[in-house]
Design a protein that fits this description.
- There is one protein chain.
- The chain is globular, with a radius of gyration of 16 Å.
- Helix 5 links the parallel strand 4 and strand 5.
- The chain has a single domain, classed as Rossmann fold, CATH 3.40.50.
- The two termini are 29 Å apart.
- The protein is α/β, with parallel strands linked by helices.
- The protein has six helices and nine strands, in the order αβαβαβαβαβαββββ.
């Protein structure tokens, strides 16, 4: 795993997704070296880079030009340019242009989460995975309901990560925002 501090950051873009969360997403996705991954709402590219180290190809998509620029910088820094295509566009519209894929990660949806999940599900290969990361409870709930509409069984995991910082008397724990991961598999 790449340390959080090894990513280029930008104050205008959230991220990268924290190291421990990236690790959990990699495990839950069961990504392999032959897989094609779509990362919608790629932000600074933390997940894009980690998945590119394991997958055959990653499409990193974001509407924010600062996000795609930062993602491209991280892709170059971590030398995975040959496995990543960074796309400045609407994720929902871009799904139409892509061939079928194995893993769909949704970290940002611009309010179009149900549509992205439904369209992504159609393009998802058999045994493929959809993973939605959420800092808002409403986003997680929306993902759960959309999966159920598609007759898919959602798995929901809420993760709280705290990291210790030394002080004069011991170690102070500072927590990050909790993240909810809603995932499912296409059978």
């Amino acid at each position: 795993m790449i340390k959080d501090s090894d990513f280029i950051k930008n104050s205008e873009v959230p991220g990268p997704t924290k190291e421990e969360i990236r690790c959990i997403l990699l495990c839950k996705s069961e990504v392999s070296n032959g897989d094609v991954v779509v990362d919608i709402g790629c932000g600074t590219g933390g997940l894009t880079v980690e998945f590119a180290k394991k997958a055959k190809k990653v499409y990193a998509i974001d509407l924010n030009p600062v996000a795609t620029q930062t993602t491209q910088e991280n892709v170059s820094k971590h030398q995975v340019e040959d496995k990543v295509e960074v796309i400045l566009a609407d994720g929902l519209e871009t799904l139409d242009e892509l061939d079928d894929f194995d893993v769909l990660i949704i970290g940002g949806s611009s309010g179009k989460l149900p549509q992205i999940i439904k369209k992504g599900y159609k393009k998802l290969k058999k045994n493929g995975k959809i993973l939605v990361t959420s800092i808002l409870l409403e986003t997680a709930t929306e993902a759960i309901y959309t999966f159920k509409e598609l007759s898919l069984k959602p798995e929901v995991v809420n993760i709280m990560i705290s990291k210790g910082t030394p002080s004069s008397r011991g170690t102070i724990m500072f927590s990050n925002n909790p993240i909810t991961i809603v995932s499912t598999k296409k059978f």
